[in-house]
Amino acid sequence: MLGIVQPRDLQRQALAIIKERALLSIKAAHLPTDVVIFLAGEDYDALGATRESFVAEVTAQISALAGEDAGGGVRFVIGARPQVTLQRGQSIPPGTVEAKLAWQEGTIAVTAPRSDEETPGPAGGLALQVEEEGRAPYEVALVGRMSLGRDQTSAIRILHPSVSRRHAEMAVRDPDSATITDLGSQNGVEVDGERVRPHEETPVHAGQPIRLSHYVTLRLLAVGTEAAPPSERADADA
Fold it and tell me: What is the mean pLDDT of residues 183-209?
């Protein structure tokens, strides 16, 4: 026991943070694969020789979440065995937990952290279809305002080298439309073949193609509708 706080209480807090911050796609809630847990100095010291077993138990608990219901019609998934470390934090009240989370590089179809208010359901909302040269198309739930780029902090991370680290930002306007803003990217942004002005919001409607480069094409979708196969889209865009 750590004072009046037991290790299992700290583990439950850590797991609650991990579940709350899982990244949503249309069909899954992605769990982090790199977790750093910060404890108050006195709690960290009190764990002593049991720190290793504490970390092992949290690792097992995260892995066990895979396949469980995450709410909103999706389930938790994880791309690899989680790596969990424990560190002494600063200015953390005793008996409480903070965490730093990261996801497996190349994790796709992720969105902003989930919340009950912003959980996209299967019956409505917007999605973004992403087509990158050399990989299968995938869909991303579009919620609120989201950044796109190669940077690790991007809400929608696109790793193709033709995409800038901070390439663009998209924001939902209504159930059928959004806006996109070029953040000063190297290759720019085109909507329906027209280059948009950097740092100005440009309306985008469901079905319109968006190009971030010659190798990366996006398409706004109304959730519940199906996009045309790539070959048909190519003919339509020609």
Answer: 95
Quote the radius of gyration of the chain (alpha carbons, Å): 21
**Alpha helical stretches, state H, the chain:** 7-20, 41-47, 51-65, 230-237
φ and ψ at residue 71, rounded to 5 degrees: 90, 160
Provide CB contacts within 8 A for 106, sequence distance 6+.
159
Enter the tokens of residue 50.
């049991």
Query: Parallel, antiparallel, or unpaired: how do β-strands 202-205 and 194-195 relate?
Result: unpaired
Residue 73 has pLDDT above 90, yes or no: no
CA distance 97 to 103: 20
Q: State the Cα torsion 118-202-224-213 to the nearest 10°.
A: -110
Question: Percent of the chain at pLDDT above 90?
Answer: 46
As given in the structure block, the two tokens for residue 68 are: 């469980």
Give the model confidence (pLDDT) of 81-120 as tens digits: 889 999 999 889 999 999 988 876 545 444 444 444 443 3
Give CA separation, 33 vs 15, 63, 81, in Å.
13, 10, 6
pLDDT averaged over the chain?
82
Burial class for 154, CB neighbours closer than 10 Å (0-12, 13-18, 19+)? buried
Tell me which amino acid residue 51 is. Answer: R
CA–CA dist 85, 59 (Å, integer): 9
**What's the whole-model pTM score?**
0.51
Whether the CA torsion 37, 107, 76, 63 is positive or negative: it is negative
Pairing of strands 83-88, 34-39: parallel
